[in-house]
TrEMBL record:
Bias kind Polar residues: ranges: 214-241
Region (Disordered): 207-255
Annotated DNA primase large subunit C-terminal domain residues: 25-195
GO molecular function terms listed in the Swiss-Prot or TrEMBL record: 4 iron, 4 sulfur cluster binding; DNA binding; metal ion binding
Gene for this chain: Prim2
Family: Belongs to the eukaryotic-type primase large subunit family.
Cellular component terms (Gene Ontology): alpha DNA polymerase:primase complex
4Fe-4S in keyword set: yes
The keyword Plastid belongs to this UniProt entry's keyword annotation: no
Protein name: DNA primase large subunit
Source taxon at top rank: Eukaryota
Amino acid sequence: SHSYVGPDYSVQKNTGKISLEQIDALSVKSFPICMRQLHKALRDNHHLRHGGRMQYGLFLKGIGLTLEQALEFWKKEFIRGKVDAEKFDKGYAYSIRHNYGKEGKRTDYTPYSCMKIIMSNPPSQGDYHGCPFRHSDAELLKQKLQSYKIPPSGVTQILELVKGMHYQLACQKYFELTHDVDDVGFSLNHPNQYFMESQKLLSGGREVKKELSNPGNTQQKTNSQESMNSNSAPTCSNTTADAELEGLEAYFTED
């Protein structure tokens, strides 16, 4: 009953809708906290280790970044750090093309669901991937929420949910507090769902034009209602896809 059966966000209905110049602003207003954390770490350090590149790269693909945009985005940031253009092209570009199904088995890899982020590949020292509600120290999480201007009462509510291991409910509460709504009206189980719902709300409740004919939205709503009672439990993704993704991860161990 906890399996993830919502949209996989691999079919790029939004392709090219997001420009690279918008990402900084979007990361503050429409990214879930896991992706906001990854974006800031990338901007600050001009690098992300493998787990972060996979989690964030597939999320960006899911919100509409084209392969060309993705290559430009990562390359521009990495060469601001310690990676020169040649090293990027040799060591990193292949894995980005692989994520978009242009290399190897040419599989269209799907963005990670909340369950995959919560349950697999926990971050270690120097990593920024994972779920901050699941993997962050409580005091560090508190400081992060305060820095995001979450009011004290909201921070307390989120920390209580985290204490009860209700990580997705904690993320829903974060959505409510950052969007100034009393009830999100959906059951959160995917970072890309968070982004879509945020954009829908910020644009006055209307879908983005390219999403109007997406049958996945209806399916998503139904799935949300069905999973409402078990929302604190993580949801899981397709086993075959996970196996393929693990195969892909084995290719790219360079940090």
